[in-house]
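Q: What structure does this chain adopt?
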Amino acid sequence: MKKTFVYGALALAGLLVAPVAPALAKKAPPVASLDTDNDGTVDVNEANKSAEALFTKLDKDNDGTIEPKELQGRLSKKEFKAADPDNDGTLSKDEYLAVVGKLFKEADGDNEGTLDDKEFASKQGKALLRVVR
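A:
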């Protein structure tokens, strides 16, 4: 009887924690989740690497481009239009990475070429995070 109670309690605890786990994972500081060379900052290459992985994940139909619906609200209509210079209604990986580069530069307030958690906390840093993770 005691084993059944313990197993039941553990199962219930697992059910209660499971929905919270993904939310906790997203709360990791940006530098910790993007800093692949572990130098305490994120450079444009690290941001691009993460953005490329996200691009691949978002490209649900695997056609090499992202349509507005595939972006899942990561860019406003105005931002999308500005990022689509050929006006074909999609973003290629190069066009998407151009957005990342622009947002990275805007978030780099001290112009050091790297971002720290403080810079990611800015409005520009938060806009960059939407397109890299």
